[in-house]
Amino acid sequence: MSEEQSHSPDDDVSSSPGIQAGRETAEGVDIAARILQHLPGAVLRYRLNPDGTDEILYLGRGSARLWGLPEEQINADVNQVWALTHPDDLDGLRASIAESAETLTEWNHQWRIIRTDGDIRWLQGRGTPLPEANGSVVWNSLILDNTKQQEAINGLSDLNEKLKLVYQQAAMGLWEWDFQTGHLEWDDGMLDLYGISRQEFGGTLEDWSSRVHPEDLPYAQTSMQRALDGTDIYDVDFRILLPDGVFRYIRGAARLLSPADGQPARMLGFNMDITDRKFMEHQALQASEAKSMFLANMSHEIRTPLNSILGFSGLLMDADLGPEHKNFAQSIHVSANALNELVSDILDFSRIEAGKLELDLIPTDIRDTLNSCFSLASYNARNKNLTVEARVPDDLPPYILTDPLRLKQALMNLLFNSIKFTNRGSVALRVEWSRREDDPDGQRQFLFTFHVMDSGIGVAPEKQQKLFEAFSQADSSTTRKFGGTGLGLSIVRGIVLEMGGNLGFSSEPGRGSDFWFQIPVTEAPVHAVSQKHLNEIREDAEGYVLDQLRGRELRIMIVEDVALNVAVLRAMLEHSLASCAIQTAQDGQQAVNEFADFRPDIIFMDIQMPGMNGIEATRQIRGLPGGEDLCIVALTAGVTEDDRRQCLQAGMNAFLAKPIDKDDLLFTLSKLLA
Length: 674
Description:
CATH class of the largest domain: Alpha Beta
CATH architecture of the largest domain: 2-Layer Sandwich
CATH superfamily of the largest domain: Histidine kinase-like ATPase, C-terminal domain
Number of strands: 22
Number of domains: 5
Helix content: 40-55%
Strand content: 15-25%
Number of helices: 22
Structural class: alpha+beta
Radius of gyration: 45 Å
CATH topology of the largest domain: Heat Shock Protein 90
């Protein structure tokens, strides 16, 4: 052995080149095996022979996760793979392999399999064909499980189809306006909306504006300009004119699209046909107006006979009758009042439902309002031997700005409701208040809370949810036993919400209920309170004036087409005034004709009459000599704010609602003739 071939005992045998190369090869194989084991799919080496037979040369460990079969079973028989292929995808899979073999281009195909457990999977295969000398082709391929990705794609596709369906059903179109080029792009939906073809559309803003209704174009253009200026969003309704002359209602909305520099470059928006919605809104408005007209007519027809019943029964109660007949008259009067209140409730509910409830905020002595409610409730509760308590803090702010009539209406509805459903025990009215943040002008703001508590029958939990709904009571037996329309609480809710407040209740069957509402109020300004005191002084003076009126003869004209109404008003006036000359007219034209000869001090003018109505008669009388300063009082069964406004605009001085209350009549006389 030569010296170069000798080794010392300490030589490192593992450092020889051959052994080192073998070790690196083994490590590489081990790494490759680990990589193949943890691939998300499986490595496949597949051969297709010229005679059409095929075989699996190698299938990695991931195959068990894909096909759900042991690797040995698949490796042993390629038909196992074909057997698990989805029947609908089998021909496509074979065709893709044949095409790759013929063209020697990359094989890339997706198909489904049905595993032995019934689970359907999407597989994605990709491999490079390698031709062999005998004409066979071998692919070294990677098979991946693509199920999640495909399901996501299918989900998006389904969503797109649904959106497309919604888009088509909603009659919508998309548009895009490029500010740089001025080009306006419309999709097919826009063309369908405007009833034109692609050839008829020139791609300019003029193509849109020329088809907008002339009355709506300025508003639509202004809205778009405000959006371009960044002062508002573009969301507008307008009408368009179709080629066949038909108008359609369109809703247009858009947003600005800005590149990185922040300067708007495009506007992207949509148009949607809202003609059907507008038609339904119009129908709803017509129905609401028809209902309001019906209620107004019914109110007039019901209040007209009520005017006679209440008027004559009131006069009878003041007459010198025996106890029995006086009781008869009182019963008639109470029943007629109940019917009148029912009509008022229905009209109030109609106003609330139509959003036409109006508040008259004036300086209000809250203690006066509470005392009035307490007195009425106590009187009403006396017949049931119930006690009514009032718990009002001593430091209650004296004057607030509110609508005292509506506030009293809400409180009385709750109080009467509690009295109605309480057979024994008590009803209590409790008031709480707290300061809120003052307004910017320094005016003090308060939060008032009103509780009406009772020891009545209570409300079952399952009935509480619908209690504030219209025409709702706990159940039909409640209505039969206690009566009522079920409108009271609904009216309270409407009043409180209109005042900017909220309300609620707690109740326990057999133990009673606590109904409450909160309203924000403002302290009445000092000058307004002073004015209220002046009004009170003036009312005292008016009482004195009324005493004086009883000592002089008044010339009074009653313009009314219903004879019973004339008789009631005449009787009230003759009963209250010592001396008066009364002349009647059956319509407005007769009143105008006889005005100059009679020269009345005051005219009571009905509004709804055949021929010339009271509004027109008032206008004509105001134009006659001596008619400028005359006192004219409207008589009408209509009690809406619109009714009052029309009367005042026509030149009337005051307003009396039918049925006419004698105290209201005398108060109006003293006020006008003071």
